[in-house]
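Changelog note: in this version the structure field was regenerated for every chain. One regenerated record is shown below for reference.
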Amino acid sequence: MKIRSISFKGLQPASRAASRMGRGNTAQNTRPELLLRRALWKRGIRYRLHDRSLAGTPDIVLPRDRIAIFCDGDFWHGRSWPQRRKKLRYGVNSSYWIAKIAANIRRDRKVNRTLQRFRWNTIRIWESSIKRDADAVAEQIQSVIYKTRDGGGRH
């Protein structure tokens, strides 16, 4: 599943500080992801990381239960998208950022559908939810695991 990304051609960073911040963003092993992994491990939940054989390369994979977990960044994946889009309209490179995040949202939906087609459960968690209470998020995931094992089906 190949999805074209938006081009940076012709766009300039808003500032050197913005450019430096952008370079600091990583796709794997983010702080929220590490917090969640630690909370899952404490509960005895064992997992695999970043399985490239699955659509979207989930952050955490529970192969036995066929559960793919994504720790989605609030900004990059469009949390509260209608409000965020309004704010972005007045920022630097607004057309780029709006298109970029909208494309990320579409890609996330496509990844979910693809995984579900192959009988995988997908769980998407916002970074702010994990930062607020990683243990509560781990508890919710644990309840999904129990439901899946009890024959509760896909979520």
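Spot check on this record: The beta strands are 48-49, 60-62, 67-72, 121-126. The longest strand covers residues 67-72.
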